[in-house]
Amino acid sequence: QDSSDDIEDVSLFDADDDVSRRSKKSKIRHPVASFFHLFFRVSAIIVYLLCELLTSSFIACMVTIILLLSCDFWAVKNVTGRLMVGLRWWNQVDDDGRSHWVFEARKVSAQGGKASSEAESRIFWLGLITCPMIWVIFAFSALFSFKVKWLAVVVMGVVLQGANLYGYIRCKVGSRKNLTSMATSYLGKQFLRQTMATEDQAAS
C-alpha cells in the first residue's frame, strides 16, 4: 500500500519514441475490463434518456439506473482502474473516526512490461471524466424543468461517478500539497521564460 506521497506516475497520454514499444502500448490488453468500464455507465445514461419512452414505471427505471450506477462504481473502483491504468484508491476510517485516503499505484518495471496501454488509458480517463459531466448536465436539466422525482436518481449518478473521478484524480496527481507545488513550479517556469524573452527583446 502506497501513500499519496509514494505514488509512481502512470503514463496516460505520453507518446513513446520507440515505434515497437508504441505499437505494444496501443493494444488493448484487457478488452473485457475496457468494455465493462464503459458498459455500466453508458447503459445508465441510455436508460435515463429512454426510460420514459420504454416504460411508464418510474420505480422500475429508478431501480435499474441505480443498479447500473452501483455496478459501475464497484467495477471502476476495484477492477478497471487497477487493470487499465494501474491505480486503485479507497477511503478508510480509523478508530478515532478520522478518514484517510489510501492510494495504490502499479510498479512499472524497467523493461516497461507492466506499463499501461495508451489505448486503455484513453478509454479509462475519457469515460471517467465525460460521464460525470453528463450527469451534472442532467442535474441542471431536471432542476430547471422541475422534474423533482428524477433529482434523487441524477444526484446518485453525480455522487457515485464523481466519487470515482475524485478518487482517481487524487490517486494520479497525489496529495493537494503535491498538486499545489506542481502548479507553483509551472507558474514559476512560465514567469522565468517570459522574463528571459523580454530581456532578449530589450537586448536586441
Automatic annotation (TrEMBL):
This is Golgi apparatus membrane protein TVP23 homolog. The keyword Transmembrane helix applies. It is found in: Membrane. The lineage of its organism: Eukaryota, Metazoa, Chordata, Craniata, Vertebrata. GO terms for cellular component: Golgi membrane. InterPro entries: TVP23-like. Its main location: membrane. Keywords: Membrane, Transmembrane, Transmembrane helix. GO terms for biological process: protein secretion; vesicle-mediated transport.
